[in-house]
Write a structure and sequence with these properties.
Its EC number is 1.8.1.4. By secondary structure, this protein is an alpha/beta fold. It is 31% helix and 24% strand. It binds flavin-adenine dinucleotide and nicotinamide-adenine-dinucleotide (NAD). Nicotinamide-adenine-dinucleotide binds at residues 152, 181-187, 189, 204-207, 212, 239, 271-274, 319-321, 351-353.
Length: 468
Amino acid sequence: MSTYDVAVIGSGPGGYVAAIRCAQLGLKTAIIEKYSTMGGTCLNVGCIPSKALLDSSHHYEDALKHFEDHGIEIPGEVKLNLEKMMGRKATVVEQTTKGIAFLMDKNKINTYEGVGSFKDKTHINIASAEGEDVTIEAKHTIIATGSKPSSLPFIDLDKERIITSTEALKLKEVPKHMLVIGGGVIGLELGQVYKRLGAEVTVIEYMDRIIPTMDAAQSKELAKVMKKQKVKFALSHKVTAVENTGDEVVIKATDKKGKEVEFKGDYCLVSVGRKPFTDGLEADNAGIKINDRKQVEVNEHLQTNVENIYAIGDVIKGAMLAHKAEEEGVFVAETIAGQKPHIDYNLIPGVVYTWPEVASVGKTEEQLKEDRVEYASGQFPMRALGRSRASGDIDGFVKILTNKETDEVLGVHMVGARVADLIAEAVVAMEFRASAEDIARMSHAHPTYAEAVKEAALAATGDRALHV
Ligand code: FAD
Ligand code: NAD
């Protein structure tokens, strides 16, 4: 029987990063993945394919609607080749997942394909698709089994017309009318993909605003821009029934006045969140506690109630984000190696890759109000930037929230072109506990979108923004 210092179950961004860090630290490491490709949800059916489709559909929309503004004329009709677009996405996924297999080899990590399940605290059975079982021994195990789409109890996800993100990433036709249940990250990103490709899109959201966990100003701005893009929103609607009638999907919902309304479309994307995945893990055999929310319960060291077993990523509490899972992978590897790592969860940014993009770090204005923190706010509109006018991306803003007394930056919230990348500046600033004055006094290259960060900082320190 092979024996390891560490066995990692699951090869998503949590698992594969944990395995690499363990190997770097000299620990003999194995990784177990039930699918034939590495990379988990993120690389196979999540971050990477969705971003590939967002980029491709963005190009298509630019060619259709915006090239002309730049004086570019396309003789003849701009045509969509959906099969080719999907093929490109598949190639991007393949290259990326193969890259992870290469990294496993490079770091001398043993890879097992099959479902990993606990026999006891130190033995893991691996059942391959061919029905061959292997057992390995591991001093430490890291559970990184991720999550799966969740649904509503009355929905029959037939995966043909009533679908999750996994199917939405490989549709063979552009829907005529895509109904999206849930105005969160997946609903808006994939809704925007199909809107750009020509579908009518209606987003039905339970709360009174889209992206309800982000700063309310971001929800308002994104909704405004997406409405201009002709995406329809039914907010404060409680879905009560979803039925596939053959060629059509019919959704019944009650609006905020309690009136029953009906929506009809040809596809329904259910994007109401994801649930932790522990099926097949046989956690009971090792005595591992799973809580009521189906999460593997962990302490502040990400250790389960069983001393030598840890858990990371979507399968535990917290934001379901690839970079959060990665930080936790490194954290646990270093903890097992005897180091004392730290994660500041407040500084894990959140991004929505619509266009304009949405990005946040730290506290929202709503959270500061709830915590009764005295704060100052500085906001700068993207449309006032030369860079935005040059590219034509004038929607959005940067908002910086600071402690009123100390000027320390407490939260940064952005909507606009390339803010997914811009948010890194805010993370660095907050990591070093910068004040708005610090940011305001740093030179920002001209013309860049980043100038909006400096201007918002100037606005937060008083009425000092220079270009409004
Ligand atoms: P996962 O990536 O879910 O990986 C878990 C792995 O464990 C899987 O490969 C699974 O097959 C394997 N596994 C499970 N049980 C077993 C077992 N018993 N034995 C062996 N293997 C097992 N996050 C971002 O930060 N940015 C984004 O842009 C983004 N976009 C997304 C888009 C979509 C459409 C979706 C669905 C998600 C997106 N996410 C994004 C979320 C991100 O994918 C997850 O947060 C991330 O993948 C979690 O990583 P993980 O390692 O915890 O789990
Ligand atoms: P989400 O939590 O982002 O959004 C779910 C939305 O559905 C919420 O707005 C919620 O209010 C709404 N909702 C819940 N129940 C409802 C109901 N009965 N009727 C109508 N609306 C309802 O979840 P998601 O969009 O499914 O994404 C799942 C996870 O994947 C998220 O945790 C997210 O962090 C992650 N993800 C991240 C990215 C990214 O980082 N860019 C992209 C995609 C997914």
